[in-house]
Design a protein that fits this description.
Layout (H helix, E strand, L loop, with lengths): L1 E7 L1 H5 L6 H9 L6 E8 L3 H11 L5 E5 L10 H8 L2 E2 L1 H14 L10 E4 L2 E6 L3 H26 L3
Parallel strand pairs: 1-2, 1-3, 3-6
Antiparallel strand pairs: 4-5, 5-6
Amino acid sequence: MRIGLLTVSDRAASGEYEDRTGPAVRNHVESWADVEVIYQEITADEQLIITTLLKNWSEDVDLILTHGGTGLGLRDVTPEATRDAITREVPGIAEVMRAEGYKATPFAALSRQVAGQIGHCLVVNLPGSPGGAVESLESIAEILQHGVQVIRNVDHAP
């Protein structure tokens, strides 16, 4: 599985804050079988830049995981950028992450994560904290791997 990892954070992009979530997510996905991280980048909370990166990366990867920018802050635009990029939404993935996160903290209900498809690529928004991102990823790992396999089978259908 080819993966792109996108950290969305004004502070991390400016160098004011060390991105700890991107490395945590990378470490987790690299524990899966047959995974190659193709892209890993940090960007500011700029909707057009996020949308453009998602569209461009989707041509080369099977899965894009974003982390950050999914809260209620005025600069949190990752869900909007993702909706601008995807061709169809896969709401069950975000529903599972919120439901599992709610078990740890009721504030998980405030997350606005989105998941969807851009052509033959799955895109999933994870929370911005290292713990929240990895916990969310753990709750959907099997779903993601199956979803990518389904998309690949569609690619190679006669």
